[in-house]
Amino acid sequence: MKLDQIQLNIQDAKVDLNILQPKQYIEQPQAQQHIEQPAATLQIQHTDAKLLVDSSQAYRDLGLISNGESIQKFASKGQSAVMEGIARRASEGKQMMEIRKDNGRLTLSNIAKQHDTFEQQRLGITWKPSVGSVKIKYQEGSLDIRIKAQKPQIDVQLGKVVHDYTPGDVTGTLVQREKVETTVIKGE
Known about the structure:
The protein has 188 residues and is of the alpha+beta class. 26% of the residues lie in helices and 39% in strands. The relative contact order is 0.41. It comes from Kurthia gibsonii.
């Protein structure tokens, strides 16, 4: 046995659309811009470095001394030589006073021996000037730099925007209506 069947025929609706595109016009003139930057201020301060060289001891070592120092040095040497001479003569005088005790032989021979001896001379080679006689001292200087930047001045004038808009349009026409047909087919 066959069953009945239902057959459906569907026809879609058809619409014809006419679309008129919208029109838009936008224009903006270029902005006017003015930028100015004032110069930065620059301040520089410094103190000089110092190099101090003291070579006075080196000059003294070489025998190059001031007149005052020279007078004082030689006066001191002369005074000590005089004092040594006085002491020597006083000693010899005391010895001469004792001359009759040993009949003068021993006393006179001792005095002669004292005058007969030679001092051993030193070798005259020395380092001149002496090591470390030149003193060097350095004082650092300083440098202070200050920079103050100025802010830029910016002036901008925007151009006015020109905007023109024409809206579009849509018109629709129904060309075909929708339709649904049903048919029943009998089964036998």
